[in-house]
Amino acid sequence: MKKQLIFAFILCYATHLGMAQKINADQIKEQIASYKKDIRGPYQEIRWFCTDGSTRAPKDPCPKNIGPGIQHATYKPTIVQLGKQHHIYLGQILAYTAQEEFWDAENNHSRLKQYQLNQYLRSVDNGWILQKGQYYRGAIQSEDEEAWGVNFYKWLFSNNKNLKENFYLIRQSLKDIPHRGDDNVAQLIRSDSKVISDMAPDFMSIRIKIHGQPEASDIEKVKDFKRTNGHKLSSAIQAKIDILLENMIGFYKPVDIASLQQKTSLVKEAEIGKTIQTYISNNKDQKEPSFLVPATAELLLAIRKAILTQENPAAQLQLLDTSLKLEEIIFKNSPLWKPETLNDLLTKICYLGMANAGAGYIELAEWEQLNLSTISSSQKTATLEDLTAILENARREVEWSSSMVKANYQEVVDLYAEFEPLANGFIDDKIRGSIALHLGKAVGDLGDIIAQESALTNKVLNIPNQSGIRGLNPGYALGELVVVSGSPDNIEVASNKIYVFQRPPADLKPIAGIATVSEGNMVSHVQLLARNLGIPNTALADDNLLNLQTFHGERVFYAVSNKGNVIMKLEKDMTQEEKNLFAKKERKEEKIQVPTQNIELSNTKILNLRSVDAADSGKLCGPKAANLGQLKKMFPDKVVEGLVIPFGIFRAHMDQAMPGQKITYWQFLNQMFKEAEGMHSKGIPEMEIENYQLRQLETLREAIKKMPLQPQFITQLESDFKNVLGKDIGNIPVFLRSDTNMEDLKDFTGAGLNLTIFNVISKEKIISGIKDVWASPYTERSFKWRQKYLLNPENVFPSILVIPSVDVDYSGVLITKGISSGNDKDLTIAFSRGAGGAVDGQAAETYLIKDTGEIQLLAPARDMYHNRLPATGGTEKKSSTFENFILNPKNIQDIKAFATTIRQTLPKETHSDYEGAYDVELGFQNNKLWLFQIRPFVENKKALTSDYLESITPKIDINKRIPLSKKI
């Protein structure tokens, strides 16, 4: 059994780690096609399943002496095989499934999520794999499924930890797992409207309305469509419309508020029961949405807080079901609440935000950080600054809600999308069925008012709802627009194109511009490179991405101002000033020279980290080792011991003869650059030259990986491991960090371009890892970045920092500047759970700590997995939950104190005239702070000082007062 669990655990991470057996998508597509045509669908035969574990034929029920038993189908062998080989479960019969296996905690609840996704696919594709199998009598018994559902939730709630850690997922599952006879009618309405629009394209405008701004008046629109188009609609389409109308009429009937009393009978004596009774008494006849929505929102939040105080699982189930009914009330009534004034709109945003938290789309701790009610009831006016603060917080809640949905379901959607593209609509459907949809609409209305009052207006082609777009990095670009709605990881990017992604890829090659729905975090390597190089970078909403797909393939001008307003227009619409930005000119002066005048290649001895400091950067080693050595002197108890393999050792090895060549590795490298220079002089196209260089670099890279290491180097490495790190090589896990002289230059950061090897322990892997790190500057991604921005890319030398692994509980980045505020006295902090946090683009917990002492949560963590570093080497992926913040108050105070010390003492200790901000990588283990890296925080001064960008940046009077009685 244990081996099976481990096997399933590994398979679960197939898409996340790329380790397990690759699924054959075409084969699964063929299987699905066959199930659709089969009158039994994915099922083999009907059987009785008796209490004693025996099975019997359909006409041979279980005898009374062994219990009643239940009847349902068995799975086809191919279905069983999918589960065993790939952890893919199609057509799950709940009564056929053990509760613990269905909860599937070892695999991040994959089976439960797959059940929900299967239900969605059935609704949008006429039964999906059950197109004919849904009529297979006896395959699934609804009463058995409902009874199983009730028992499952009672079993699940017997441990309060499940509800505490997975409130959102469990509450969403109640919409799909039968347990009381109700259906997820709102989801059926959306799926039916999609099916009808696919059959009758003229229905598309109504479908868009139902999906984007659903309300009861949509019923008349559907009726009008049928009346107007009935003569040309087939009987099948008319039947679908009738079903849609029936569901819509049923859904938009007022919820019987009085009936909630009977549905919460098990908590009537508890405090929450009394709160529910008061709500019923005050609102059972209430019709006015502006009164009903706030009262319902308050109760929804109260129920969420009260659920964990209940000890009876049946009572918890009642409260959750009531919570869903209350969400339904808010979902139906929100569109009917028509604010007349700015104050009314602010009130609506506040209560929709509260309801959204009560429904689980953000965590309670996150809601407590959002202050959506900063305007006092006695105020007559509000400043533009105050209104903008409310807008930013409300906008954050909408983004956090979407990221909660994606964090929970993206992995299973990605898995299914390989063989069923319809799966890609599941997350969008979840978001559109949430209170966040209506909150987003209200936030957009507030954004439009503030944009009008401040003149901070986006002008992004002609797409709607632009108030959700916000610039992250200033810059401008001209190029083809490429909109990528799926995973970005396998997209081959080009340096002259502008990309719109759902999320930023982890290893981004040079591009002209970027916009993302999920920005990751503002201190990831991708974001720092974009900021450093003046690449315009924007965060936008899901709808914005969908609307931009219309312009996919068009050449566009794209600019982000210093204040974050965004311009995007077709090339033909550019002004002469904008065209002049891209006039042909010699770019050589814009490139950066890698300094080599001070480099010392004669030093071929491994260095103790304690013996290097900031003065050795670019001379003996790169800035990582030099600066960490400096920190070791300044903060000896916060920095591990370490070894530094200097430039000279790399260069000595590169002087060896290269196998299969008549020259050394170093000569081969320089000969390649010389040949490329000759090709330039002959007018050979740039792409052809680049392809030649990449082919040569691949040859060099593979040769370096097989390079023999000099015996004297191995001997010293073994000796220093024992003398400096305290254990023999092979007995202590270490990090091998590439540390080149191309990093942390005055105008180029190079963050994340070269290799870091995590937690390697065996001697063989350490030896191999050293060569892999030496080879990493010659990868395509690293080469393209430095080729584009460096004048002498051939003079890149890697050193290596070798440090013992620290299995931190959480780790991240500190920037001694407010990136979002622009204030040099503020701090920006981003942390993720486990090792390697924030730098690789995880959806990190991010704070702005103002110099006034105010701490503002900019984003919560939303990564479902994190790295742990076992003492046996390698990495382990652990699943995460979001109910608690990563950083505690003491951690934040420690970071603030450390930042103050860095600002005050580092320039003095290093005798530096550097006055800018610092970028620090750090982590906590048992609340002890560990330092791993410090570097200058490099920004693109050209973008920040561009006359054009300044010209499109509006001058905003943040003290401007706006009447709250302003009509909207």
Automatic annotation (TrEMBL):
It is an enzyme of class 2 (transferase). InterPro entries: ATP_grasp_subdomain_1, PEP_synth, PPDK_AMP/ATP-bd. Its cofactor is Mg(2+). GO terms for molecular function: ATP binding; metal ion binding; pyruvate, water dikinase activity. Residues 620-943 form the Pyruvate phosphate dikinase AMP/ATP-binding domain. It catalyses: pyruvate + ATP + H2O = phosphoenolpyruvate + AMP + phosphate + 2 H(+). Keywords: ATP-binding, Kinase, Magnesium, Metal-binding, Nucleotide-binding, Pyruvate, Transferase. Pathway: Carbohydrate biosynthesis; gluconeogenesis. Its EC number is 2.7.9.2. The keyword Magnesium applies. Belongs to the PEP-utilizing enzyme family. PANTHER family: PHOSPHOENOLPYRUVATE SYNTHASE. Catalyzes the phosphorylation of pyruvate to phosphoenolpyruvate. This is Phosphoenolpyruvate synthase. It comes from Arenibacter nanhaiticus.
